Every structure is written in C-alpha cells, then in structure tokens.
Amino acid sequence: MSDFNQNKPLPELIGGLLTDVTGLVRKELELAKTEASESLSRALGGIELLAIGLVFAIGALGVLLSALVAGLAAFLISQGFTQSAGNGLSALIVALLVGIIAWVMISKGITALRANNWTFERTTASIGRDAEVVKEKTS
Q: What is the pTM of this model?
C-alpha cells in the first residue's frame, strides 16, 4: 500500500486523507444518531407502560391509604380519643409515614439518575478504532 501512495503527489494524498476523514466523521455521526434513536425508542416504549401502571398504582395507593387512615382512626377512637381527634391524628400519622417513604424513594431515584452512564459504547469503540486507522495512515 505504501508503494501505491509513493507515486502520488502530496496534495493528492492530503486530499484523499481529508476525504477519508470527512467520510469517517459522517459515518460516526450516523452511528451515534442511530444508537441514540434506538435507545430513545426503547425508552419511550418503557415509559408508556410505566405511565399506565403508575396511574393504576396511584389509584390503588389512594384507596389503601384511605383505608389505613380509617382503620387507625377507629383504633384511636377505641382507645379513648374523640372522633375528630382520632381522625386528625390518624391522617397526620399516615401522611408523615408516606412523606418519609416518598422522600427516601425520590432521593434514591435522583442518586441513580446521577450515577447513570449516558455513553454510547459502540460509537466510542468505533471512534477509537477509526482514530487508530487515521494514525496509521498518517505515519
């Protein structure tokens, strides 16, 4: 391959190298775009199902929490609290417990999102291989 390139003038070799590098950059951008599109499509499908499930889960959680407040209020009333005091105290206790659980879950979710690695492995590997090829051609 070096005998073939020795017969060409320098401007032609540089032009060929620039053409190769430009084509290479275009292909890398296409690969990155394709990889991002695939990731986005998979994520959107999962998000759609997640949203539907969350709607049902929120409804079920509301019913469950309402039953928990009513049950705790009934227990407090049986222990000598007035009806209004038992209702208010049970609602406060349940709200505090749910708030603490929500805070813990949100904190863990934020931590997980920050730790997520948003790199494109195939694109990065391909760019590394291409850099080696360009380095070999220019040596």
A: 0.50
Residue 19 C-beta-side C-alpha neighbours within 13 Å: 6
CB 134 within 8 Å of CB 22: no
Cβ atoms 6, 105 nearer than 8 A: no
Cα dihedral sign for 30, 34, 40, 44?
Answer: positive
Apex 80 CA angle, 79 and 84, nearest 5: 110
Buried b (16+ CB within 10 A) or exposed e, 83-110: eeebbeebbeebeeeeeeeeeeeeeeee
pLDDT digits (tens, 9 = 90+) for 10-55: 788 788 888 888 888 888 888 888 888 888 888 787 888 888 999 9
d(CA 23, CA 16) in angstroms, rounded, equals 11
Under 8 Å CB-to-CB from 123, ≥6 apart: which residues?
28, 31, 32, 35
